[in-house]
Amino acid sequence: MTIKEAERRTGLTRSNIRFYEKEKLIEPSRNDNNGYRDYSAADIENLKKIAFLRTLEITIEDIRRIIAGQAPMAEIIEKQAETIGEQIESLGRAKVMCEKMLESGDVSYEELQIEKYMADPGIYWKENKAVFKLDSVSFMHLWGSFITWSAITFICLMIGILSYAKLPDKIPVQWSHGAAVSSVDKAFIFAYPLACVLLRVAVRPVIYTRLLRNRPCGEPVTEYLTNYLCFIALSVELFSILFVCGAAKSVAAVIAVDTAVFLGMLLAAALHLGGTGRYKRKRLF
Questions:
Q1: Angle between helices 146-164 and 218-244 (to 10 degrees)
Q2: How far is CA 118 from CA 91, 95, 101, 125, in A?
Q3: pLDDT above 50: residue 285
Q4: 5/9 Cα distance (integer angstroms)
Q5: What share of the chain is helix, strand, coil (3-state, %, to 5)?
Q6: Residue 277: its pLDDT value, please?
Q7: With left for phi above 0 and alpha for psi between -120 and 50, is residue 72 left, alpha or beta?
Q8: Is 234 exposed, middle or buried (0-12, 13-18, 19+ CB in 10 A)?
Q9: From residue 28, how far is each of 7, 17, 112, 188, 230 by CA, in Å?
Q10: Can you give the three-state secondary structure of 104-128, one letter per residue?
Q11: Using 50, 70 and 90 to split pLDDT, how confident is the model at 160?
């Protein structure tokens, strides 16, 4: 059957169906006569099952594992039930606290006295530690922000403008064992800020939609990764200038340091977020 018929039978939109195909959750056959996708009754049932599991906020990756037989569905459902239970408990406490504040009339910041709502602040902070875990990785959001990208791109551009007149006619773009093996016109120095723009405009959406859309923290990780790639461009630009001046020899060392810093910060964020079920299950887009 055609995708239009698949839409009618499942109640899903065409974009949803196409997305599940791209994620390889279903693989309809092709009509030999016209090359169009031919959805079978089994495909329709699978689409319904996938959509149902998504309404439970089970991730695409977990659904893929279930379909592939890599994880029992009961195990995934049990873990999801626990996560939802934790969310309900946390939200329930927050709801009760909000109701108490409204009943007391204590609704202005100036008049707020937190001692009226908790016996021991230390215990209360521990009960809400998930919130503070998110606050503790604010550096990741800062690094992945538009402001950071703008700063990196601006620095790239200014370095190109300020160094252009002093550069030789040819600058290296490939190195091996401390020696340049390929050179291009010095105007290439402006390719680095251009690369930052392309990474933000063209590459970032692809990284998110193809790799991280249904991953925990997919959006901030995408922003973080994009800015990291821009930082690599900035580092290579600086290295090119330093190489010409005889002040640096190994671009591999520069990239290795950048990568070590990137992975270290990402690992630190992952460790902080590891126990934060609410954030891990949040749908960002």
A1: 10
A2: 16, 14, 12, 10
A3: no
A4: 6
A5: 70, 5, 25
A6: 42
A7: beta
A8: buried
A9: 14, 11, 59, 46, 39
A10: HCCCCCCCCCHHHCCCCHHHHHHHC
A11: very high
Q: How do residues 12-52 score in pLDDT, each as one tens digit?
A: 988 889 888 888 898 888 877 777 888 899 999 999 999 99
Q: For the chain, what is the radius of gyration of the CA atoms?
A: 26
- Does the pTM surpass 0.70? The reply is no
Tokens representing 111 are: 């008049």
According to DSSP, the residues that pair with 170 across neighbouring strands are: 185
What residue has token string 């900035």? 234
**Beta strand spans in the chain (E):** 29-30, 37-38, 170-176, 179-185
CB-based contacts of 36: which residues, under 8 Å, 6+ apart?
2, 30
More confident of the two residues 119 and 57: 57
Q: How far apart, in whole angstroms, are the C-alpha atoms of residue 64 and residue 47?
A: 12
**C-beta of residue 264 within 8 angstroms of C-beta of residue 270:** no
Q: Which amino acid is at 148?
A: T
Per-residue model confidence as pLDDT tens digits over 44-78 = 999 999 999 999 988 888 898 899 899 899 999 99
Task: Identify the pLDDT of residue 77.
Answer: 93
Question: Is 218 within 8 Å of 282 (Cβ atoms)?
Answer: no
- 3 state SS of 29: strand
Looking at residue 275, its pLDDT comes to 47
Q: Judging by beta carbons within 10 Å of its beta carbon (0-12, 13-18, 19+), is residue 253 exposed, middle or buried?
A: exposed
DSSP state of 181: E
Residue 38, beta-bridge partner list: 29
Contact 39, 48 (CB under 8 A): no
**Model confidence at 135: pLDDT above 60:** no
